[in-house]
Request: fold
Amino acid sequence: MLDIILAVATAPEVTQAAEAATTSAISGSIQGALGCLGAALGVGLVGSKAVEAIGRNPASFSKVLVLGVLGMALAEAVAFYALFLGK
Reply:
């Protein structure tokens, strides 16, 4: 019985399918990681520029806050696209 299981597990079709699944999983992981990295950089840039703008003109706090939160949300959407669409 063990010989039959080993013969099936080492068949060329099975090993090719396993290699293709592993390659797909690795490339999807790299795509997700790069997408999240881009989103993190985008959120950091939006946050730093918002703080800089409020430092220059404190009266514009409410307008900058709304635009900053909107910009961060749009930057985070990139991470979700990369994670959910990367297969």
